[in-house]
Amino acid sequence: MSTLGDQVRDWHHGVLAVAREDLERALCLFSAVREPPAKIYFNMGCVHLMAGDPEAALRAFDQAVTKDTCMAVGFFQRGVANFQLERFQEAVSDFQLALAQLRSNAAIDYTQLGLRFKLQAWEVLYNMASAECQAGLWAKAADTLVEATSKWPEGAQGVLDTALDQVQKRAPLQLRQVPTGEVFQPPRQYLQHLKPMDFLGKAKVVASGIPDNHNTDGWPQQRSQVEQAGHQSPPSVGKRTLSNKGGPMSHALCYNLLASGRPAPGPSEDSSGTGGAAAKDPESLVTVTVQCHFTVPLKAPRDTDLSSLRALLAQALLHQAHVGQLSYQAPGEKFWVPIPTEESLQSVWRNAATGPRGLQLQCRGAWGRPVLYQVVARHDYSAQRPEDLDFHRGDTVDVLCEVDESWLEGHRDGCIGIFPKCFVVPAGTYVEALPGPGPKPGDQH
Description:
Blueprint: H1 4-19, H2 23-31, H3 38-50, H4 54-67, H5 72-84, H6 88-101, E1 107-109, E2 118-120, H7 121-134, H8 138-150, H9 157-168, H10 188-191, E3 204-206, E4 225-227, H11 251-260, H12 276-280, E5 288-295, H13 306-323, E6 325-328, E7 337-338, H14 342-351, E8 359-366, E9 373-377, E10 396-402, E11 407-412, E12 415-420, E13 424-426
Parallel strand pairs: 5-8
Antiparallel strand pairs: 1-2, 3-4, 6-7, 6-8, 9-10, 9-13, 10-11, 11-12
Helix pairs in contact: 1-2, 2-3, 3-4, 3-5, 4-5, 5-6, 6-7, 7-8, 8-9, 11-13
Family: Belongs to the NCF2/NOXA1 family.
Domain PB1: 287-366
Keywords: Cell membrane, Cytoplasm, Membrane, Repeat, SH3 domain, TPR repeat
């Protein structure tokens, strides 16, 4: 079953097909819209008129005004179709219905509704007079034009004077209609999520390092994925990189691991390069476990060798370590509290536990973009589009941007995308509960 996004996409592509005069393709796309609204039927009618098939156009405009009985421009175009079929009395009736829907207004501007056309009362009366001429009602046509002239239409006085002169000479009038190629376009707000977005560019590396407290005997396999320019692949999730024996993972250690492909020196060696009094007094050292999770961009020449690629990745990760969002996890707590300032870090030191686990920190970031806050998924969300971010109930997501009132842009496990706000709650307010029926993802697009 097609989603609302699929239908809007077909509508948009149909409009583009009309613009390039691919009428068969346009009709196919408009017809693919499930339960078409009045605007789609109107578009189909206009395309049939362009194709020279007024009978099919009449059927489409019938559907349009049935769906929207106040659609003045629909009655106007149905009158055009009846006129072309030489059903002049029906045409006069349609133009009268169009005039009635104007509700004594001089015009209706459809631009804000997606149609670049302004239906004016004098044009409706002009077409009514044209149909009356074809029906042989010349006196009635003259009266209709006089009525149109009495409305003092802007910029049309000369046109109406000429038309009245023609009618008095019993010369037929040229019919007016919506300009060829003008159709209703989908609302702009419907189009904003249609185009897939590659947030990381053409060439990028997606990698992360996340410590695993359950593994203290060795180094797990580190994985990274490189996407070269001109090639695309699904978003990847970088796996875990640990500090040896659960200790800190310094910049130098990260660089060593990436540059050489081997573990850095063990805890007995000074791999941090910090030195100073703290290094001389082991009793003053505190074990700081830092979970690192980054998404980084990397531009590399094609066919770059492995060692050069690792060096570039190490440089990118060092940058990410500086711009990532540091957060603190208190013992026994489940959620992370951001550390945005020096004062907040000193407060963390004062409150840090002296137990064997030491200080628990987290450093997260996506391409240097700041993390506004974190949310937790209340329900599973399956991606409906390439630009969506999927997750499972209980997952923590970094919020990078508030797209609008209903959507957020987030980062999780090396992937960036948008997701509905109603599927998540702020991290500090999440409470475990029995699974219940969640929102329907299809209703969000």
